[in-house]
Amino acid sequence: MDFDLIICGGGPAGLCLARALSGHGLRLAVVEQQPLAALENPAFDGREIALTQHSAQLMRSLDLWERIEPHALSPLRDARVLNGPSPFAMVIGHALGPHSELGWLVSNNLIRRAAFEAVQDSQRTNGDITLFTGETVAQARTSSSAGQVTLSSGVKLTGKLLIAADSRFSATRRAMGIAADLHDFGRSMLVCCMTHDAPHHHAAWEWFDYGQTLALLPMNDDPATGAHRSSVVLTLPSHEIEPLLALSPPAFGAEMARRFAQRLGAMTLASTRHAYPLVAVYPRRLVAQRFACVGDAAVGMHPVTAHGFNFGLLSIDNLAGIVRAAQAGGRDIAAADGLARYEQRHRRATRPLYLATQAITRLYTHDTPPARALRDLALHVGERFTPFKRMVAASLTGSH
Ligand SMILES: Cc1cc2nc3c(=O)[nH]c(=O)nc-3n(C[C@H](O)[C@H](O)[C@H](O)COP(=O)(O)OP(=O)(O)OC[C@H]3O[C@@H](n4cnc5c(N)ncnc54)[C@H](O)[C@@H]3O)c2cc1C
Description:
Elements: E1 2-8, H1 12-21, E2 28-32, H2 36-40, E3 48-52, H3 53-61, E4 74-76, E5 78-83, E6 89-93, E7 103-107, H4 108-126, E8 129-133, E9 137-142, E10 147-151, E11 156-164, H5 171-175, E12 180-196, E13 203-209, E14 212-219, E15 228-237, H6 238-246, H7 249-259, E16 267-269, E17 274-283, E18 287-288, E19 291-293, H8 308-328, H9 336-363, H10 369-384, H11 386-397
Parallel strand pairs: 1-2, 1-11, 2-8, 5-13, 11-19
Antiparallel strand pairs: 3-7, 4-7, 5-6, 9-10, 10-11, 12-15, 12-16, 12-17, 13-14, 14-15, 18-19
The chain binds flavin-adenine dinucleotide.
């Protein structure tokens, strides 16, 4: 079967790219290993995604934003960074920027559902997207004239441009011979939704405690009970996560309240618990002959700076603009100069924060006495240095 563009992976990035390119005279294929039912009704996966103002804008332009119920969009007003047992916090307030909130928090499964619905609408209107679900990309290669993938069922697809949107561990990227720098932090993150006694005032916490890292992502109060609600992220060495997943809900609530030093009062588990290994990935190349990586396949961020999907949306915006312009001008959508421009722009947009995130996590997971002193000093200096805080606020709103 012949297409213009084959997107390997129907996660949020792959679906957003299909939506961004629909209606421009291109025949698009999306291959996703999950069954159709999992795309239609994506299960809660624990992730509450912090979206910048710029990402919210991109999601509006892709017609995703309006598909998410307003009460499921939680405003993120401020961010507080804490260190060790000290109550001192560096505060990045929304007042440092032009908006009444730094960004928004939205559950990943709702983003996935909105992206799928938008793709279905595009397909109904333009008839240019073919979805292959329950199919794994088993082989991928390109030549100077075309890209080809073989699906697990044996079906072969050809296209002018092949896209890897199949996660940070992208098999398609590997099949194309692209090496990646991978950093395994030897830690895992436990994520779940919890209710708690103390209000969060819509401030996120990133708390680099000794021996553990805690994050609190403020969600709107539970519409049914009015209880204060947050997404909670606990980072620990991987072997310490397993026993926490096995605790009974009441025991888990008590354990999390203890880990949060009772700062939120009593805490109650309000969702399923999910664990993710912490691995950051940066490929050496983002493009090859008739091939490009988007989403996590292009940059697999450590979630601490909450930029993974924000960068994913940037990659879609950037690549889709180049492909649409080539198509409108009657040029090859996979021309080497266009792909090189995409790679250069996306590396420039992502590489500095990727490296800064690695440095922050290295410093804030060291617990030796000199490291503790340095961690404390860095926070105090950061709090007093307004230009630095403005820069962080700009990064959180996506306006830099
Ligand atoms: C705990 C946690 C918290 C996070 N918080 C934030 C945040 O606050 N802000 C933020 O911006 N980002 C955050 N992220 C990152 C965000 O979740 C990812 O950037 C985003 O989900 C990546 O989307 P994607 O489509 O590129 O990849 P994925 O979501 O990994 O989707 C890849 C898709 O490809 C499919 N696939 C894989 N291999 C194949 C194959 N061979 N054939 C066919 N299909 C295949 C998979 O089934 C999947 O559907 C967080 C991540 C985690 C783990």
